[in-house]
Structure formats: structure tokens, C-alpha cells
Amino acid sequence: MRDKKAFTLIELIVSISILVIVMMFSYAPYNLYQNRAKVKLATREVAQSLYEAKNMAISGVKGKNNSDDSKQEFKNKSVGVFLTSEETKDSKINFYYYDYNISDSEIVFPSKEPDAERQIQDGVTMTGFSVGERDYSSLLLFYESVTGKVKVYGFDASGSKIDITENGKNDDTVKIKFTYKKATTGFLQKEIKYYLKTNIVDYK
What we know:
By secondary structure, this protein is α+β, with helices and mostly antiparallel strands. It is built from 2 helices and 13 strands. The protein starts with a helix and ends with a strand.
């Protein structure tokens, strides 16, 4: 009787161990696909933000009326979307509003706090940007007030500005790269393409 009980207890321990192992193996693929889904959602969030920025530049940005702070009015503003691979800032979509008549020389690497900010999916970061064969640490996608025409400025690690729209006339495709927690496997990485001439963002 004592031997039978001992054998039953061992069987129970083995069964639990097998169950735990099976659960671990089934959870790993689920978790992997869940993280991949986060990367895809992040690319969609950035794509939608670019469309939103253009629409705001065309239709106006909501601002407070000085005579009555409770009311809001639309103001003509150019809208910039700043994206960077700089650590601690590489998971944020930053919106900057500019005066409609701002000159090209006044557009510099953003050093102030953004006018609006959006966080992409938890754990997902932007790792780099490229146009043609050239890579950039940061990008500013600038939408002109009223017209919505886009200009793209690239910045290197030092903050030096390059007008991609002017200097890259043969390269009208901006690539934005994403990864989940700095993963090196392609399964957890994704790249979206922004076609400047047609204003189409391919994030599928």
C-alpha cells in the first residue's frame, strides 16, 4: 500500500512537470507572435500620424482663443512629425507646429518639447531611417500649411540637417525601421516605406 502511494505521488510530479513544459513551449510561440503584432501596430500608428499631420496642416491646428480660453479655433500652422532613433526617445511620435511662413533656414533639429506627443506600442522602437543609400539618426517630416506639401529633413547623430527633398530628387522613398526590444531576428523587425510623390505609406 505504501509503495502504491509513493508511485502515485511520483506519477503526479512527472505529470505536472510535463504539463509545465508543454505550457512553456506553447506560450513561447504565442508570445513571439504577440510581440510581432505589436511591431505591426506600431508601424500603423506612425503611418496614421503622418496622414494626420498632413490633414492638420491643410485644415488647421486647433488652438485656444485668447479672448476666451474655453473656445478653440483653427489656426494655419505647418506641422512637423519628428522621429528619432535616439535612445529613450525612439518610441515616440513628436508633433511640432510651425508658423505658416517659417523659412527653411529656421527649421532645425528640434530641441524644445513637442506640441503633441504619441507613444507607440510598448517595447517597440524605431532603429533608423534611410533614403536611397544614406542613413539618418532622425527625421523631420514637415507639412506646409494649407498646401500639405511635404518636405523631409534628415539629421545625423550631431544634429546636422540635410534637406532630403532637395538633395534626394531621385529617391522619393523614405524608409523607417522598427524592432521589438532591439531584436536581431527579422521576425521581430519591420520596415515601412513612405512614398513622397504619392503620399502613400506602405506599412503592411
